[in-house]
Write a structure and sequence with these properties.
Helices cover 76% and strands 0% of the residues of chain A. By secondary structure, the first copy, chain A, is mainly α. Chain A folds into 2 domains: 52 residues, Arc Repressor Mutant, subunit A, CATH 1.10.10.60; 150 residues, Orthogonal Bundle (Tetracycline Repressor, domain 2), CATH 1.10.357.10. The longest helix of chain A has 29 residues. Chain A has 8 helices and no strands. Chain B binds a DNA duplex (30 and 30 nucleotides) through helix 1 and helix 2.
Chain lengths: 205, 205
DNA sequence: CATTTCAGTGTACGCGTGTACACCAATGTG
DNA sequence: CACATTGGTGTACACGCGTACACTGAAATG
């Protein structure tokens, strides 16, 4: 009873992959056309409607996929938060590796935050806020464990995310060399934030 | 001998204003059509070509206008860098005021960095890098004057710009209330960076 | 086995687009 | 004053788009 549903899932996935395949640093999701995506997926234009209401609907599905991918990065980073010494260094490099593996996904998340429909932008904002909240929690816990508390965990986490994701967005259109140079600078900047946050917490006592 | 050239300049400006007028948080520059802009400017579509090669050409002109506006903000901020006590607070609020006055310009600069043609993105990157360089210079000078030097002025400036512009980009689609809340958080984050940078410089001795 | 469901097709439509071409009328030039 | 320059117009074209409609054939259902 599932040959039918399986096949449907498959072509749905084909549409998603087709859209992703058409994205690159020159081409934003907003510039893709329904016909174009259907063509790339080997479908007649009309068949698109069997799977999504319109391009916006597809877009939200893509953000969802990207969100899952982002959560994977985070989970890995959280593991390292416990074990490693040079947390920041390892985390940033982990993120950069991940980005290099799925550039289109992160193109959407990091570089198309500001464009598109209201719901598109809200969906992206939600994914990123989720990331920030989790990080804030980790920072707080970690700060107490090491007895070097930080000031205002959410604000600190937000700064870290802004720096990291902003940088990662730029990394998308860079050579491997410039990329690792950028990664090094990001680590420095994150260290500044952590240092500053700790110092602010000290001053508050 | 200038009735002709004057008029031409005027309609060119009309085209620029028309494009700017069509931009808002839902509508990105990339989604504007040549005909649409010409229509808004009260021109026949063909007349567009008397002033710009194509939409990309217009886009670069717009980035140029935005860059000039950005440089104005910076000049004001630099004045305050010398006179005021709470530099960061005043600077961030100055930027936010400016943004509220010309939202379309900053929409392009802050939210459409990641989309569009190669030359479009390079033009935007150049404007922002200019800003970062000037800030780095100021930070270095200021740090020496106050005998509280900072570490790696360019890296510090880059972090400040990333935080500030990232935040400002988000501010564009916020209510006035959320906006000032955000501004307050940004000031905190910038203080973290400054504090951290100073501490890094101390540690290096 | 007869019937219903439904993913996918082909045709067709009106629309907005970029831009080529021929033209006009006012300004600038010798 | 005669002529050249040029900002702007109107017409026309082919194109890609979203999507409505009628359809088909295979899988699912009873």
């Amino acid at each position: 009873m599932s040959t039918r549903t399986d096949k449907k899932q498959q072509t749905r996935q084909n549409l998603i992959d087709a859209a992703l395949g058409l994205l690159n640093q020159q081409r934003s999701f907003g510039s893709l056309s329904l016909r174009e995506v259907a063509r790339e997926a080997g479908l007649a234009p009309n068949a698109f409607y069997r799977h999504f209401d319109d391009m916006e609907d597809l877009g939200l599905a893509l953000v969802d996929v990207a969100g899952q991918s982002l959560r994977t990065v985070m989970r890995e980073a959280r593991q390292k938060l416990v074990t490693s010494q040079s947390v920041l260094d390892v985390s940033v490099n982990a993120l950069f590796d991940h980005i290099a593996r799925e550039p289109q996904l992160f193109h959407m998340l990091l570089r198309e935050q500001g464009t598109g429909s209201e719901s598109w932008r809200r969906a992206i904002r939600t994914e990123i806020r989720y990331f920030t909240n989790e990080l804030a929690e980790d920072l707080e816990r970690l700060g107490q464990a090491k007895e070097r508390p930080i000031a205002d965990a959410y604000t600190t986490a937000d700064a870290i995310v802004a720096i990291t994701f902003g940088g990662a967005g730029n990394a998308l259109s860079m050579s491997a060399d410039s990329r690792s140079e950028l990664a090094a600078r990001l680590v420095l900047q994150l260290r500044m934030i952590m240092l500053g946050s700790e110092r602010m917490a000290e001053a508050r006592d």
